[in-house]
Every structure is written in C-alpha cells, then in structure tokens.
Structure of Urease accessory protein UreD:
Amino acid sequence: MTTTAPAGAASALRAIARIAAVPDGRGGVALPVLRGEGPLALRRLRPDDGPRARVCLVGAMSAPLGGDALALSADVADGAGLTFTTAAATVALPGRSGAPATYDTRLSVGEGAVLHWLPEPLISARGSDLRQTTRVELAAGARLVLREEQVLGRAGEPTGRLATRLTVHRAGRPLYDQELRYGPGVPGWDGPAVLAGNRAAGQLLVVDPAFADHPVQPQVLGPGAVLVPLAGPAALVSAVAPDALGVRRALEAAATALNAVFRP
C-alpha cells in the first residue's frame, strides 16, 4: 500500500509499481505481476503490434511532488515482449517540504526478449525539484527501444530543477551512461553547449544485436537532432526543440529511419 509521512511531518508519498512479462506458452505474453500503488496505476491494454504485451501507466493522482519517492520496475523474461506507455505526461510539482522528489525506474530484459519503453514527456514545473534515474539491464540477445523526453516548464513559466540519469548495461557491461541537469543553480544548462535556449529535450535509444553487423551511420537529422552509433549494437538519437511537439517529431522521424516500431 502507499505510505505517507507521520502526522505533523511534511507530507511525502512512497509508491512502488512492478511489471513482470513472461511467455505464456501459446505464442503470447502473460503478466503474472502487474501491481501499482498510489499514482502508479497500471493497466493492461489490448495487444496490437504482434506478440508483445502492452501496459499503460495511468496517473491516479498528482505526483511526483517535492519529497515524494516513486519507484517503477519491469522485468521481461527470456523470449517475452512488452510495450510500456503512459496515458499522459508526468508533471513534477513543488512540495510543501522543499525536499526533492525521486523517481527511480529499473528495467530488466532477458535473452531474446524485447522491451519498448515509451512514456509520455516529463514536465518540470516551476518550483519543482526532481531527481530521476533509469537503470536498464539487457541480456546479450535482448532488444530495446527507449524514449525519454523532458519539457522545462509549463506554458509561460520557468522550469523547475531536474536531474536525470540513464544507465544501460548489456551482458553485464556498460553500454550507455548519461546524466543531465537543468534549472536553477545548474551552470550553463540553458547555454549553447546544452539547450541553446530550447525548452524541450529528448533521446531515443535503440539496442539491437543486428547493429553489430550493420551499425548505423552518424547523421544530422535536422535542426537540433542527431543520430549516432554507440560502442555496442546500439544507436542514440538526441534532440532539442522549443517545445515537446518538436522533440517528438524528431524522435519519431528517427525511429522510422531506424526501422524501429515506435507507436504505442
């Protein structure tokens, strides 16, 4: 169950959600674990893109607020497939305590398994302070399509403070590790070396053993968007734009170019 701080203390929410996907023995995928608390409500959707199961996170309440601690994990067993989406953007909001919120995501993808992790954008509202981490463990034969998008401030407002880190290991070895920080007190975050005045950023990471024999070529995909190969069977698209729509268009175009299934 969801827990809160003791009476008299500044309110803080702790919530955990878990997903487990396994082959069902009939060519499909079963979800023996699909459990969420508080704002992390999970719903299974009708499959529409092959043998992968589809799960959507439906925000049941406003979160994360300052001081909240949210955790989400997904384990995709050998040979299984999962597509994860969210029903709406996640909005980081300030809390009464002034403490930062945390949102920790852990993903595990087994041998021959496929995970498409496609949440809607994270919006950093004015006065908020969020520390988000995503850790991915891939088997050597796993495939991954992962999208992250950040929007700095709602319409007409300055951004809050946001720190994000994405770490990916494949077959026990580091494949990708990137940390980004934005907002008040972060030197140079809005300068030409980072956002250059833009207010939205995103990345699309595709890991596929097929890239070992056919690596992608570096490309400039348009203003503020580039495609680069990684030191492993993977490709990364990074994009910045004035708004979330611009980032999404850049990532979708790149996904088409990579022949990655990129629809929810």
